[in-house]
Amino acid sequence: MRFITRSTSEPRKELRAIQKKLPELSDIPWVQILGWGSVATGALALGFFVGRNLRDRYRFKHSTPYDFYSHAGDNGGPVEYGVGV
């Protein structure tokens, strides 16, 4: 009884030849643009988050007891106008 053996190197050679013809994923410009855009969006979101936290800490440390009342620090006209008093 003879076993028929196939050469497994032929499909591998064909696959390597096809892979050599295809450009690498990093060589495609739209992938690079998409990647850098994602990095920039992430950095912007992180900057907004950190900036908001720093601003809240600063405002809380420099707050006065009157800041917790409604309309504290408003520069508008009289708030009681038109309330019926």
Estimate the global geometry from the Cα principal axes.
rod-shaped
Report the count of strand segments: 0
Mean of residue pLDDT values: 77
What's the main sheet like?
A: none
Number of helices: 2
Query: Roughly how many Å apart are the termini?
Result: 111 Å
Low-confidence segments: none
Question: What percentage of amino acids are in beta strands?
Answer: under 5%
Structure classification: mainly alpha
Rounded to an integer, what's the Rg over CA atoms? 33 Å
Q: Please write the string of helix (H) and strand (E) elements.
A: HH
State the helicity in percent bands.
40-55%
Oligomer: single chain
Describe this structure in words.
With 85 residues, the chain is mainly alpha-helical. 54% of the residues lie in helices and 0% in strands. The chain is built from two helices and no strands. The chain has helices at residues 9-21, 29-61. The longest helix is centred in the middle third of the chain and has 33 residues, at 29-61. The termini are far apart. The model has no long low-confidence stretch (mean pLDDT 77).
